[in-house]
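Moderator note: this is an archived Q&A kept for reference. The question asked for a predicted structure of one protein chain; the sequence and the answer are reproduced below.
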Amino acid sequence: MLCILLVFSLSACGGNVNAVNTHNVESEIYSEEDIAAAIDTIKKEFKSNWNGCTLTEIYYAGDDSSKDYQDWADRNNADEVIVLLSSFDVDSSGGDGSLNPNSTYSDWKWILVRTDGGKWQHVDHGYYVKFQFSAPCNPKQRKTGIFRCRFLFISFLYQIAVQPSILPRSRIV
């Protein structure tokens, strides 16, 4: 009886990835195998660490998106980056407490990097808005002529306007 209870308790850990929908997105950068390996990496991450959540869809965000996030590869000492988009449902537990209970998150980004065609590494996830300005801020950025920033606060405000249900219940006053 104790063994059966242990098996059920272990199978309840992590997120549900049993019925995930995926679809092919054409790429001139990555093969179908490269994209499938990145998706498998996120499925493992989700299954291990996303208690109370069900991954419903995941797919490659497209070549333009990966090019826009090249700075993630650079700052992680990698030479390639891939961005995936997903949707997932959160049950009444609110996942780890930072997500809204009984809600759906759409267009959730997963950022992965790798070097020399090796294994993909998950380095970040969430909602992101990229801003580009024509005036560089420091000498290193003057070489590219583009200043790229990740404005968390502005991104947060933008996402509230687009999808108010993303507000974590712990931050609602």
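Archived answer notes: The helical segments are 2-11, 32-49, 63-68, 70-75, 139-142, 152-162.
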